[in-house]
Amino acid sequence: xxxxxxxxxxxxxxxxxxxxxxxxxxxxxxxxxxxxxxxxxxxxxxxxxxxxxxxxxxxxxxxxxxxxxxxxxxxxxxxxxxxxxxxxxxxxxxxxxxxxxxxxxxxxxxxxxxxxxxxxxxxxxxxxxxxxxxxxxxxxxxxxxxxxxxxxxxxxxxxxxxxxxxxxxxxxxxxxxxxxxxxxxxxxxxxxxxxxxxxxxxxxxxxxxxxxxxxxxxxxxxxxxxxxxxxxxxxxxxxxxxxxxxxxxxxxxxxxxxxxxxxxxxxxxxxxxxxxxxxxxxxxxxxxxxxxxxxxxxxxxxxxxxxxxxxxxxxxxxxxxxxxxxxxxxxxxxxxxxxxxxxxxxxxxxxxxxxx
Amino acid sequence: xxxxxxxxxxxxxxxxxxxxxxxxxxxxxxxxxxxxxxxxxxxxxxxxxxxxxxxxxxxxxxxxxxxxxxxxxxxxxxxxxxxxxxxxxxxxxxxxxxxxxxxxxxxxxxxxxxxxxxxxxxxxxxxxxxxxxxxxxxxxxxxxxxxxxxxxxxxxxxxxxxxxxxxxxxxxxxxxxxxxxxxxxxxxxxxxxxxxxxxxxxxxxxxxxxxxxxxxxxxxxxxxxxxxxxxxxxxxxxxxxxxxxxxxxxxxxxxxxxxxxxxxxxxxxxxxxxxxxxxxxxxxxxxxxxxxxxxxxxxxxxxxxxxxxxxxxxxxxxxxxxxxxxxxxxxxxxxxxxxxxxxxxxxxxxxxxxxx
DNA sequence: GTGAAAGCGCTAACAC
DNA sequence: GTGTTAGCGCTTTCAC
Lengths: 356, 356
Hints:
Two copies of one chain form a homodimer.
Chain A: H1 5-11, H2 16-24, H3 31-44, H4 50-57, E1 62-67, H5 75-88, E2 92-97, H6 102-113, E3 118-122, H7 128-135, E4 140-143, E5 152-155, H8 157-170, E6 175-179, H9 186-202, E7 205-209, H10 216-229, E8 233-236, H11 239-251, E9 261-266, H12 269-273, E10 277-280, H13 283-295, E11 301-302, E12 310-311, E13 321-324, E14 327-329, H14 350-355
Parallel strand pairs in A: 1-2, 1-3, 3-4, 4-5, 5-13, 6-7, 6-8, 8-9, 9-10
Antiparallel strand pairs in A: 10-14, 11-12
Helix pairs in contact in A: 1-2, 1-3, 5-13, 8-9, 10-11
The structure holds a DNA duplex.
């Protein structure tokens, strides 16, 4: 039975409002009184009940962070960065995992909505329409997806894909494949779009392969398809798949990069260990940026007359779109291809020139 | 400005308590009325405010899960299992990461305490005393540590260590090392205690080595120490360190298992990929068990007279200790040692016999 | 600088 | 089966 504000008030002969002020607006209370309140509070082990406070202020100082799969090593750095950034701003982050299921995703947003001030939605698998609906119920920041009208943080994977394809073509590869990711993934579409365009601009072929899951197992499962495609280089949707593929190709008697070059995307910790060439995405920066955007939503403001009449406005001040740069990290999973190494300008704008 | 229970009541000409009952005790309300309430609620987009509900019932239907390091692949399976188990019981799990810092750990427990019904503390780094104090403020279940008087879930790592040492001695190793984990770790102490005892019982030497961190980097950093120790086999505190060690030993020109055998503990997903011999610990089962124990705490009961006088009792009905079995998984990181392979009984009780 | 009082959204006796 | 009512613990006008 924890101590309440009333217990503290009684114990040091002061009114509850004074105790309340001691915690929420210390400068409004006489230093001497404040000291007395603080010490009795300490003595009674009093801690403000956040549910009660939330009820009246409309703010919980909690944030939600929803990811597709905690077990995917891509996410933990982002989660950690988000948590520490939130902590700097005196907020807490609640993490939840959707198991790559759009329905669970939606349910989690709804469940979290009433107990957080906002939610970071990472790599959502929901349809855009569903996200837009939810955004009306709770402040949302979307990571790894562009949703019109919502603040978003994305990696520049289009340029990442270009860097990867340029790298492979530069090594002398002309029959390439892209091993795709989840259907609902914006990132997947973006990579594919860019890879296709860049390959065409180089005049090389690019086969798009489907996959079963954005995991190692998914990479393993795709090995046979890759071999059958007869390509000499593969770009995978993410490192996890690339690593699975790496092992499975060897199992098929193919050498990497001798027979086939493999490039991943993300640069998860494991990738340097297995010497996977990859495109690094700044996940920690994305986590921090997302939290910052969430906290930049208008603070709740009370309107209406009389005490205890909070009307929380979720108007966002900025629906900024942050795009974070990616970096190619050449390692030993890529090597010379069967053709004369190509040479070309690696201009930043090359890919987007093609789009028009 | 979300709809409240009052809006719904007004909109379908019924009293708020009827609306409340429709959601918290549907069978107490006339099916016809219930239907009307439900549909207007749906129409207005009403969802019960959990903070308000928590305030009066004393229950949040949220659980906290605190882990040392989300980025350690050991934890995600446990987190996922806990989340899905909680979901079955209509609860949510908030995950938080302490970065292996005891102070952060304590702070997080306190911060979560008022917004969850209980907390699962995984692999705590705090002192037992601190945990006992916190347990008075919020229901706690401890995983990977035994704390007297608290419900705990532990892996039988003592037996796991015995399995590992037996395995190595059986292969003909007689100069062994244990590469230890974090100082605050109960598991670390337990493994060391058991490994030392079992080694003695076999009449082989076991050097205990300290480490900098329970991560791949920690394993890498320890390689030189391991080499200098002149042993032919190493048991590491966890797979992550074992894997780091594996790579670094090769870097030092040693072959595994030719020159040196390496055994890990945990069986994280990565371990099968690198063919690490390890002791599997049932982390998912631990997550489920911990959630079950938390939900087995006495439900809050209102005492005192009059409405709205919740007195939450945290008496736990059982302070059970669950011990989960471990399994040795021999792979290719262990091989024959320089001595005649030993043969001995692998009796389950052998190690504990030595303790007396 | 402090007290008084209203009320956030909801639940749970208690009446009828 | 439904309405009435009193508050959960807290914050915030408004007086003084």
